[in-house]
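lol forgot to send this yesterday, sorry. struct tokens for the thing we talked abt
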């Protein structure tokens, strides 16, 4: 029998470093619109956190609304979801001590509750927690991302179905579609990212983990390979089917990747050992984190083959150190986590 969902999630996360929490940012990749060139400078907006908690991830909607998760420690004994849908903050205190936000659209926020099995998904919409759906016979599961298109709201997630783990997505009519491994492969699947035109990404695990893509209209996955190591994971996909994520390289370090035209490309690091790409917008601009030669995490933006440290785009004397970028909109706004005056904080960058 396969281990329970918690144990398999722990196995799936062992090689992913950085500031992000479990099931880090679900797939971005909106509809239309074009992205500006990488800005020469940004303004920084700080989002307040609760006393005793620090943000571990921040997501951003296409319109620039912000949500995220705060924790008390690593590993966490308290995990609290929050959102800024207006100037006021909303705290997800009614769904338990452990509430992890994983994704948001302009009018819905998704995540999961629980620190161990059984996990349960949630969706927050119009000021209330609404009904959730899992695959038939699933005993528990998580929502990992949400997007709205002209047909309605779509959600991607992962659930324990009998003794197997399956990625899935929920359609606007609340019907659930299971995401399967490639033909002839026996493996658990995990759904992490989605685009507004029905492309999904995630991973599959048998002995090792490998990034996987489900093209629009298909439920049979395509394995994407690795950067030379034994594991990889796809975290986000845009409407062009370009995928980003993280992979082990032959040395055992983790590097960020971009996958397009049937090729997985290593984005490199800032001279350190590890990196991960967390989000991509419709123009193919990627954000994430990478370690520098001193071993410090730094938020990056990647476009047209160039990875740039976002800290080099801040005004002098800002007091910020941006450690991880976890979301990007089609207009170029970027969400993430850093330190301001030495205190960990959530941020949104607005290009100028």
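and heres what i got for the seq, position by position
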């Amino acid at each position: 029998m396969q281990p329970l969902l918690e144990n398999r999630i722990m196995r799936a996360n062992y090689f992913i470093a950085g500031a992000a929490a479990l099931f880090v940012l679900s797939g971005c990749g909106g509809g239309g619109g074009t992205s500006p060139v990488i800005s020469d400078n940004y303004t920084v907006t700080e989002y307040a956190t609760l006393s005793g908690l620090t943000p571990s991830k921040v997501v951003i909607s296409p319109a620039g609304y912000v949500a995220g998760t705060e924790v008390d420690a690593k590993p966490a004994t308290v995990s609290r979801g929050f959102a800024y849908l207006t100037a006021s903050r909303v705290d997800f205190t009614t769904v338990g001590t452990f509430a992890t936000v994983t994704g948001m659209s302009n009018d819905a926020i998704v995540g999961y509750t629980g620190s161990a099995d059984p996990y349960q998904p949630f969706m927050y919409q119009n000021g209330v927690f609404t009904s959730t759906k899992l695959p038939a016979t699933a005993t528990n599961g998580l929502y990992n991302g949400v997007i709205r298109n002209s047909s309605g709201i779509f959600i991607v997630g992962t659930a324990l179905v009998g003794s197997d783990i399956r990625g899935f997505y929920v359609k606007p009519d609340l019907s659930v579609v299971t995401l399967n491994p490639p033909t002839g492969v026996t493996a658990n699947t995990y759904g992490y990212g989605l685009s507004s035109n029905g492309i999904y990404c995630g991973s599959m695990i048998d002995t090792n983990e490998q990034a996987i893509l489900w093209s629009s209209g298909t439920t049979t996955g395509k394995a994407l390979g690795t950067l030379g190591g034994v594991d990889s994971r796809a975290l986000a996909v845009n409407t062009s089917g370009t995928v980003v994520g993280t992979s082990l390289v032959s040395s055992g370090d983790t590097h960020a990747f971009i996958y397009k035209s049937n090729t997985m490309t290593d984005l490199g690091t800032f001279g350190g050992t590890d990196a991960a790409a967390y989000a991509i917008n419709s123009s193919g601009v990627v954000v994430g984190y990478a370690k520098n030669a001193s071993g410090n995490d730094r938020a990056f933006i990647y476009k047209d083959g160039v990875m740039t440290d976002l800290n080099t785009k801040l005004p002098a004397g800002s007091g910020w150190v941006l450690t991880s970028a976890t979301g990007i909109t089609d207009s170029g706004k970027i969400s993430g986590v850093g330190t301001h005056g030495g205190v960990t904080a959530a941020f949104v960058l607005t290009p100028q």
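The first helix runs from residue 5 to 12. anyway ping me if u want another try
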